[in-house]
Amino acid sequence: MGCSSCSNGAGGQPRGCKNNGTCGTDGCNKLTVFDWLSNMSLPNGQTPFDCVEIRFKNGRKEFYRNTEKLSIAIGDVVATQAKSGHDVGIVTLTGELVKVQMKRKKVNYEDNALPKIYRKATQRDIDIWQKYRGKEEEIKKRSREIAISLNLKMKLSDVEFQGDGSKATFYYTAEDRVDFRQLIKDMAKAFGTRIEMRQIGYRQEAQRLGGIGSCGRELCCSTWLTDFRSVSTASARYQQLALNPQKLAGQCGKLKCCLNYELDMYLEALNDFPSADSKLLTNKGMAFCQKADIFKETLWFSYKNDPSNWHALKKEQVQEILEINSDGKKIESLEEYVAETTEEERLAFENVVGQDSLTRFDRPRRKKTKRHKGKNQKKKNRNKSVKNA
């Protein structure tokens, strides 16, 4: 969804806000929330909720209390309380919907220790904020060079300056514990500001940096996903996916979060589904399950002596055979049930349109052999006439 400043420029070309996801109207930001209560007025006598949601760099959001009762709207740039000095952020949500968000993120809105909003940011505050934001890429590159010179096994993924420029927070990922005391001294001397190091996980790093997933869409963690649940290889096994790390891993190097989206549906479908370890007893020998399709409710079995020849059986047929085997009896063969399945499928299919060919709209290729033969014959006749002359 584009913001109001992304209108067309001269000549009908898209102008764009050129803020790289930090536009003031908050229409094209990461993890934005639609305020569906914005057009509703409060009942008589009810005071507006005094907490406000404010967004900082790369979708980092925090809640602040509006003690001064300032007239604040979504998109306003405000100066907020920090541990030392002040920070500058953009208002992303106001009103009663903030209370819903605080409950969702388990933040006590009655806590008096919540940080406060000082004022609406002045032009001087915004100039200082933008000045230090413009230095972040250069400082990030220089800090990586310092970390490499100290032989530290860590990756500095992002840097964020406080609004007044008094502090810089460096986000990094590392496999083991890192002693970065000398790194902080060197960076404080090089950049002339207070340094704070904050370790994040690989999923949080992908959330901050963003990107495009293998599905062709923006990463879920950088657009709408806020909580990161653990993903195990069991999720892929239940969905019968090939355990290929290159396909199952996301940009963060961990298993994709989308493996959990349909997991509950698969688990529900597997409750009354025969086990993949099921063994069917027949007079022709024991049959083992080779493959199962939950959507088609079909299982493929093969005899122990003939593993390459698979027989498709419906879920109900397998359950029926298992009941017969539980009584100590054997069925004659799997081919009897396979014949019933194929007959049912043949009756269920009906070609209504009468066009079941996928290539019915393709133009048939013209045969060029006759035309070439005609040309060759004309050449031969012409050569004979020249010789006779």
Layout of secondary structure:
Layout: E1 51-55, E2 61-65, E3 77-81, E4 86-93, H1 96-104, E5 117-120, H2 123-134, H3 136-149, E6 155-161, E7 167-173, H4 181-191, E8 194-199, H5 202-209, H6 220-223, H7 233-238, H8 245-248, H9 263-269, E9 279-282, E10 285-293, E11 298-303, E12 311-314, H10 315-326, H11 335-348, H12 369-388
Please name the defining characteristics of this protein.
extended, five-stranded antiparallel β-sheet, 12 strands, 389 residues, four-stranded antiparallel β-sheet, 12 helices, alpha+beta, GMP Synthetase, Chain A, domain 3, 31% helix
Description of the structure:
This protein is of the alpha+beta class. Among the domains are: 131-200, GMP Synthetase, Chain A, domain 3 (2-Layer Sandwich), CATH 3.30.300; 207-269, no CATH class; 279-347, no CATH class. It contains twelve helices and twelve strands. The strands form three sheets. It has a five-stranded antiparallel beta sheet. The longest helix has 20 residues, at 369-388. It is extended and about 85 Å long. The model has no long low-confidence stretch (mean pLDDT 82).
